[in-house]
Amino acid sequence: MTTLLTPFHYEYMVKAILVSGLIGGVCAFLSCFITLKGWSLMGDALSHAVVPGVSLAWLLGLPFSLGAFVAGVLAALGMGWVRNNSRLREDAVIGVVFTSFFAAGLLMLSLHPSNLNLRTIIFGNILGISDPDIFQVLVISAVSILVLALKWRDLLLYCFDEGHARSLGLNTRFLHFLLLALLSATAVAALQTVGACLVVAMLVTPGATAYLLTDRFGKMLIIATLSGILCSVTGAYVSYFLNGSTGGCIVVLQTLIFLAALVFAPKHGLLVARAQRRAAASATA
Amino acid sequence: MPDTDPPLSIEVDDVTVAYANGHTALRDASFTLGAGTICALVGVNGSGKSTLFKSIMGFLRPVRGRVRIAGLPVEASRKRQLVAYVPQSEDVDWTFPVSVWDVVMMGRYGHMNFMRIPRAEDKRIAHECLERVGMSEFQDRQIGELSGGQKKRVFLARALAQRGRIMLLDEPFTGVDVQTETAIIELLRSLRSEGHIILVSTHNLGSVPEFCDQVVLINRTVLAFGPTEQVFTEDNLSRAFGGVLRHFRFDQSTIQEHDGRTVKLLTDDERPLVFGKDGHLEYTERHGREELVKERAKEAGEQ
Ligand SMILES: Nc1ncnc2c1ncn2[C@@H]1O[C@H](COP(=O)(O)OP(=O)(O)OP(=O)(O)O)[C@@H](O)[C@H]1O
Ligand SMILES: [Mg+2]
């Protein structure tokens, strides 16, 4: 019993668990929009494209979230621009833009060796998160939650039917930018917990899981957010005992839940689908 | 917001629209519609009907000319929820986790507060509109789990729920069964009597005289515009369609004198468009058009 409570005796573990839970929740909420809008790859791209921003911010002595956020938004705008001005497909554009950003970041980091550890950026370091970094995460999360709580219906309409959103007089260009900005901001926050490599899991898997479980967007938001928080908190907690990577634990947990949903989902699950097809076949026979 | 309602109108003024590939889809198109009308937009495939709708919505910017709605530029009219638009085909992701009810509710967004929280009034209107298109029993269905015609009806309901006083319907009847079409036409008539403007494109020529009081004939420009009786002439139609219409000439058919006027005409979906001896339009119902019958009898008698 006491061994189960040991992680809570360490302040760094408590912080890690709480911060992971917060970030996990915000990312999961946003993941519903990202998966439905078809921006999953974009999330992956942005999380890598923020690297040069981080190194530049460090060189200039600015908060590293700021640099990451600016780089993320620039990359997103760059992708939009290349797509609109060439006949390339979206995936090719994303591939070209994000690798260029990532390469620039690597180059900068290697030319100006710093105490900014590349490993930290790529794999995250939630156990060693500093108080200023926690503060940044708190601000990003608070702003994202506020914006999403107020505007999720507009964003939903924008993702579902852009033409109709426009015909109602909604500013679709603003909504597009808002979603991109939220994506960049949360990617930056998630960078701290799981690192650039696994950010996309936080931004996609909970939404994908919830989508398998329901046909209503409202419910999808709730399921995704709950599973996001649960996985992050549990993952961080379990990582203490496994003595393994926190990010790895969180994402593996998310994947397990996703697989469970894929097989057992009440309406769209593999088992139900097979049973229904059998039932239909035997009824006609 | 106490709107001092401006008089309703659509003014299309010398509009020329070109696409990015350099194709000029519309050239110098002009017409004006005033309050309380159902106007048909008729032309062959590629004549620019959808293009015209998109420029009235402001989705395509004319290279020349301008569109004004109730005296306002199109962007301003959109903000005022004046216009509801049902495109020819919905460009949406059908696997999206929204129900029929959610979609119709989206039509009410413009009337809701900043956070888009529906009030009782919004719910009442959404129910009523679903009822009107006969889709109430499907309200909890996921939007992709409907037939093509049912999807169309849901998006019509959404446009109705917008309560725009101008409705732009791009081929609303294709793929919709006769019963629904009749119900929708009935609804459009009642909207007209409330002073709404309805612009509806259709390939179903026979139904035009039945419910449209005005017609815009287009083929990459406006060929003719005005009241149905004046515009829907054989001459104009053959100009718009260039001889591609199907004909059934009674005088060249096997119908003989002794058949009199008891010949029956059946069609599956499209209503027949029938012209009389002098090339004037014939209607399906005498009832309600006694004046016209009398007038034509007089003309024939005097000759
Ligand atoms: N996105 C586009 N880019 C380039 N040309 C286009 C585009 N959309 C339409 N066109 C062209 O513009 C012309 C008018 O098209 P439009 O869609 O307005 O026709 P329509 O009258 O609605 O036809 P239909 O009866 O088939 O619906 C056509 O010649 C078409 O090829
Ligand atoms: Mg069209």
CATH topology of chain A, by name, is ABC transporter involved in vitamin B12 uptake, BtuC
| Number of separate domains of chain A | 1
The proportion of residues forming helix of chain B, as a percent range, comes to 25-40%
Proportion in β-strands of chain B: 15-25%
Rg of chain A to the nearest angstrom?
20 Å
The CATH superfamily of the largest domain in chain B turns out to be P-loop containing nucleotide triphosphate hydrolases
Please list the strands of the largest sheet of chain B in the order they lie side by side.
6-7-8-3-9-10
Residue ranges of chain B: pLDDT <50 for 5 or more in a row? none
How would you classify the helix and strand content of chain B by structural class?
alpha/beta
What small ligands are held by the chains? adenosine-5'-triphosphate, magnesium ion
CATH superfamily of chain A: ABC transporter involved in vitamin B12 uptake, BtuC
Structure description:
The complex is a heterodimer of chains A (285) and B (303). With 285 residues, chain A is mainly α. Chain A has one domain: ABC transporter involved in vitamin B12 uptake, BtuC, CATH 1.10.3470. Chain A has helices at 2-5, 11-37, 40-49, 51-60, 64-84, 90-111, 118-123, 131-160, 162-167, 172-194, 199-213, 217-242, 246-264, 270-284. In chain A, α2 runs antiparallel to α12 (217-242). Chain A is globular and about 70 Å long. The N and C termini of chain A lie far apart (57 Å). The model of chain A has no long low-confidence stretch (mean pLDDT 88). Chain B folds into 3 domains: 1-82 and 164-232, Rossmann fold, CATH 3.40.50.300; 94-160, no CATH class; 250-302, no CATH class. Chain B has a 6-stranded mixed β-sheet with strand order 6-7-8-3-9-10, with helices on both faces. Chain B has a 4-stranded antiparallel β-sheet with strand order 2-1-4-5. A two-stranded antiparallel ribbon of chain B has the order 11-12. Helix content of chain B is 31%, strand content 21%. With 303 residues, chain B is α/β, with parallel strands linked by helices. The termini of chain B are far apart. Chain B is globular, with a radius of gyration of 21 Å. Chain B is built from 10 helices and 12 strands. Classes of the chains: A mainly alpha (285), B alpha/beta (303). The interface between A and B is medium-sized, with 23 and 29 residues. The complex binds adenosine-5'-triphosphate and magnesium ion. Magnesium ion (MG) binds next to α1 of chain B. The site of adenosine-5'-triphosphate has 13 residues of chain B, from α1.
